[in-house]
Amino acid sequence: MLRAGAGSWLIPFLPQPSASSAGVPGVAQPRLRAPPASLPQRRRLGPLWPHPAGRWAPSWPWARGWSWCWGLPWQSSSPCVSAAGGLSLGWRYHRGKIYYFSGEQKPWGDAEAACRSTRSHLTSVTSPEEQDYLAQETRGKSFWIGLAATGPGGSWRWVDGAAYSQAQSFWAPGQPDSTDYGPWGRENCAQIHPVGNGLWNDHNCNFSFPWICKRDLSGP
């Protein structure tokens, strides 16, 4: 265990359904606010796509009945965020995935349960690029990630099913060290840690820290 102080965009605007007035009987049309100038082009947001010129295309109707919002069932009578359990508000998009950096603190197991309630998991880290992104976003704080020593013989595994590779890991020097906390057990859960600019540290799973959820938008 280590001891130290503990170009993405958000989606702060939500399209709201309104009565149709564009010649599509019975189909609601979106009432839209302009997106920020920095919004990437051709990026899908819930049920809508930005116009290639950087404007919303107001003629595209919202689906009647069930549609999809971040891969979750969504009805045109409700804001996208209601069906997505918060996935459209407060999450950050990065290279085909969305991440949630919590402001609360929970034990590792409760943090994973919170992620699962939004159909995501505690984040895996599967590339140097992703590690650099998470280290930058955590800004010198400790966050639970989805790595735990739960396999045979205490082997490390990603909770989202991603393959764990010791060669492609980002442990801080001397970690993991599996410190024994007696009745609390050993350090079997991993966190991004301030030491080493976001390198990993093992910690006791019963301690409370903020956490990072991740969902791959290309998945089911």
TrEMBL record:
Keywords from the named record: Disulfide bond, Lectin
Pfam families in the cross-refs: Lectin_C
Gene3D superfamilies given in the database record: Mannose-Binding Protein A, subunit A (3.10.100.10)
Domain C-type lectin, residue spans: 94-214
PROSITE patterns given in the database record: C_TYPE_LECTIN_1, C_TYPE_LECTIN_2
Claim: Amino-acid biosynthesis is one of the keywords in the record: no
SUPFAM superfamilies listed in its UniProt record: C-type lectin-like
An example molecular function term from Gene Ontology annotations: carbohydrate binding
Protein name: C-type lectin domain-containing protein
Species the sequence originates in: Aquila chrysaetos chrysaetos
Lineage: Eukaryota, Metazoa, Chordata, Craniata, Vertebrata
